[in-house]
Amino acid sequence: MTDPNLRVLISSERIQARIRELGEQISRDYPEGPLHFICILKGATFFMTDLARAMKRDVYVDFMGISTYGKGKTSSGEVKVTKDLDISLEGANVLVVEDIVDSGVTLNYLLHMLQQRKPRSLRIAALLDKPERRLRPVSVSYVGFQIPDEFVVGYGLDYGEKYRNLDDVCVLEP
Ligand code: PRP
Q1: How far is the CA of 39 from the centre of ligand 1 (A)?
Q2: Above pLDDT 70, what percent of the chain?
Q3: pLDDT band at 117 (very low <50, low <70, confident <90, very high)
Q4: Are 85 and 65 spatial neighbours (Cβ–Cβ below 8 Å)?
Q5: Neighbouring C-beta atoms of residue 3, cutoff 10 Å
Q6: Of all atoms in ligand 1, which is nearest to the CA of residue 103?
Q7: In principle, which of 34, 67, 107, 133 could form an S-S bond with 58, CB 3.0–4.6 Å?
Q8: Which residue among 50, 99, 102, 129 is the active-site one?
Q9: Amino acid 73: pLDDT
Q10: Predicted local confidence at residue 44, as pLDDT
């Protein structure tokens, strides 16, 4: 797919190599029992499936839908759960899997909510991190790539639902 508005920021090869590293690191960090992945719809589905396959251990997967209003513009963005989990988190080692952390509003809210479900542990893995944009503090245990404040699409990330199925992460030029 050639699109003059797209500039490759992180190639598919680099993404897949980094995911293999993350899979090995996370597998080492959780030596026992299954690990529960919570994938935040929709963008993280691509990262989640590749990361799950890079893991050298049992992984359970579940999905959560979130909608945010005023996201990225104010720190008071309202967050609503549109699809809740099927599996109980009580006593589980839980890893929230995200495609990108931007303002941090979504994950800041989500982490507080998930803590109330009494997991044994709760951490975040994000493929991309835009630290310059942070409005709310979020501690991300596993980061694929830190990126500058540019609008990116591909590998799950969209612009008006387009571009999610690109293999590379690309900057959408204005
Ligand atoms: C993206 C991303 C995170 C959130 C991060 O989702 O997947 O959930 O934004 O932004 P924040 O740190 O500013 O809260 P988006 O709302 O674009 O939904 P999508 O994954 O369905 O495209």
Answers
A1: 12
A2: 94
A3: very high
A4: no
A5: 13
A6: 13
A7: 34
A8: 102
A9: 44
A10: 98
